[in-house]
Structures are given as structure tokens and as C-alpha cells.
Amino acid sequence: MTDTSPHAPEGAQVITRGPAAPPDPTPTADDLFVVYLGEPPDAALVGRLVAVGGSRVASHDPYWDAYGVTVEDPDGNRLVLCARSWT
């Protein structure tokens, strides 16, 4: 049974078919993986994400720019580091 309570351990796994057969459809600006930090994103963390190939981008929805940072990876996937708390 899956624990979906707010205090459940976190985990995520993304599975694709590999580079020879990328998943369809490709990511859009509305496809986001949001991490609620409960504090402003650390500039050093954002710097490391950019150093390994990410790009800091403006979010499609201004809400995410007001409360965090959006980083896009080379495949177009977007990660939002949100300063707000989940609860």
C-alpha cells in the first residue's frame, strides 16, 4: 500500500525508453517538477544545476517566478525550486 500522507517519505523515479526512443510527448513549459523547500532556493544549488547543463529560465506561469527558481535541463524538463512550503 502506498503512503500518501503529508509525512510520507519522499521519492521520485522517472523512467524513459532511452535516448534512441524518447518518450512522447516531449515536455512543455507547463510540465514541472516542483520541490517545495520552505525557504528561498540556495544560490549555490542553482549554480550547480546550471554548471551541469541546466538553464535558469522564466516560468510560463509568473507564480513560480514570484516564489522560486525554474531550471530547465537540456531535454526541456523543468525543475522549480519553490520557496513556499507544501503545507
Shape: globular
Number of strands: 4
Distance between the termini: 23 Å
Global Rg? 14 Å
Tell me the major beta sheet.
4 strands, mixed
Give the SSE order as H and E letters. EHEHEE
What structural category arises from helix and sheet content?
A: alpha+beta
Average pLDDT works out at 83
Poorly predicted tracts of residues: none
Beta-strand residue fraction: 15-25%
The helix count comes to: 2
Q: Give the assembly state of these chains.
A: single chain
Strand order of the biggest β-sheet = 1-4-3-2
Helix content: 10-25%
Task: Map the helices and strands.
Layout (H helix, E strand, L loop, with lengths): L31 E5 L6 H9 L3 E3 L4 H6 E5 L5 E5 L5
Parallel strand pairs: 1-4
Antiparallel strand pairs: 2-3, 3-4
Description:
17% of the residues lie in helices and 21% in strands. The chain has helices at 43-51, 62-67, and strands at 32-36, 55-57, 68-72, 78-82. The chain has a 4-stranded mixed beta sheet. A hairpin with a 5-residue loop joins strand 3 (68-72) and strand 4. The mean pLDDT is 83.
